[in-house]
Write a structure and sequence with these properties.
20% of the residues lie in helices and 37% in strands. With 145 residues, it is α+β, with helices and mostly antiparallel strands. The protein has a seven-stranded mixed beta sheet, with helices on both faces.
Length: 145
């Protein structure tokens, strides 16, 4: 299971399948996908991305940090869930973020993903909220060191 940096175009199919099922592909495009400090990680199996995530600098208002990054679009193909791909990808991300001197990683987590993020050391901050057409979320963060 090797984690690799990938191009944005390699993410869209899996983002669409997992995060925006039944919605047009363009709903999986993020404004910061092509920013110079954005990076995308994936674990591919048979040349297909089966676990993905996007990371870019973005401050989190609720928690002080010198250099915060945001996690977006984390997805694992349904056939490969609970096999350690997500954990492996995130461990690589933590290492890379620390090399970039990031001190905080945060995300807007769907309710179904809360146990996964907690297992990686993320904490919930604030109240549950709804993102239109996507569902209920909590904001979560992890201090990096």
């Amino acid at each position: 299971m090797q984690v690799c940096f990938v191009s944005t175009s390699e993410l869209y199919t899996l983002r669409n399948l997992v995060l925006r099922p039944g919605k047009p592909l363009h709903t999986t495009f993020y404004d910061k996908d092509f920013d110079k400090d954005t990076f995308h990680l994936a674990i591919s199996i048979e040349s297909q991305a089966m676990c993905i995530a996007t990371f870019y600098p973005e401050k989190m208002d609720s928690v002080y940090s010198r250099k915060a990054y945001r996690l977006r679009g984390m997805a694992t193909h349904p056939n490969y869930r609970r096999k350690g791909l997500g954990k492996n990808l995130m461990q690589s991300a933590f290492t890379h973020l620390i090399q970039k001197q990031a001190d905080l990683l945060w995300c807007k987590a769907r309710l179904v993903a809360i146990p996964f993020y907690r297992s990686l050391g993320f904490q919930i901050i604030g109240e549950q909220y709804d993102i239109e057409e996507i569902g209920s979320h909590y904001t979560m963060y992890k201090l990096l060191s």
